[in-house]
Amino acid sequence: MATFTFAGILVIAAYIAAQMLSDVLSLKIATVAGLSVDVGTVIYPFTFTLRDLVHKSLGRAAARTVIISAAVINLAMAGLFAFAVWLPPDPTWPLQQEFAAVLTPVWRIVAASILAEIVSEFADTEIYHLWITRVTRRHQWARVLISNTISVPLDSLLFCWGAFGGQLPGPTVWSIFWANILVKGAVTLFSLPGIYLVPEVQS
Questions:
Q1: Which end of the chain has the lower number of beta carbons within 10 A, N or C?
Q2: Which ranges constitute the DSSP H helices of 26-165?
C-alpha cells in the first residue's frame, strides 16, 4: 500500500481545489482571441497532470479514489450553493438576486462537468497505467503527454456538448470546444515538468 507522503497529500489537495475552482469559474463564458471559452478552462487542465502526480506517488487505486471523491465534492458544492440560494436572505442584505444569478446551480452544466471529469480522468488513469506497465517507466514526460492527448479532447467534447449543446448555437459550442483544446494543450505542455516533483511508487 502506498504511503501518504507530505507531497502526496499536497497533490491531492491541489487536485480537489483545481476541480472545485474550475467548476465555479466555468459559470462565466468569456471571449479570448476571438474564441468563446468557459473561464474554468484556465484552471481545469492542471487537474490532468495533478492526477498523474497522484498516480505516480500513490498508485492507480489512489488516483481512482481521488477522481470519485472530487466528483462527489463538486456535486456537494453545487447542492450547497442551491441551499444557500434557497435560504431566505436577511432583509438588510441587498445581494440576494446577484448571489442567486451567479451561484444557482445550472444542473445540466454540473452533470456535464462531473460526467466529463469522471470519464476523461478515468481514461487518463488507464492510459497512464498502460504506458508505465506495457511501454516504459522511462521518459516520464511522455506518459503525461500521451495520457493527456487522449483525455483532454474527450473531456472537452463531453463537457461542451453536454453542457451547452442545444442551448447555445452550434458554432459557439464548437468555439468553446476548440478553445478548450488549445488552452488545455498549452497547459499540458507547461505542466509536463511537474511529473518529476514527486517520487514514484509501483502501481
A1: N
A2: 46-58, 60-86, 96-103, 107-130, 140-164
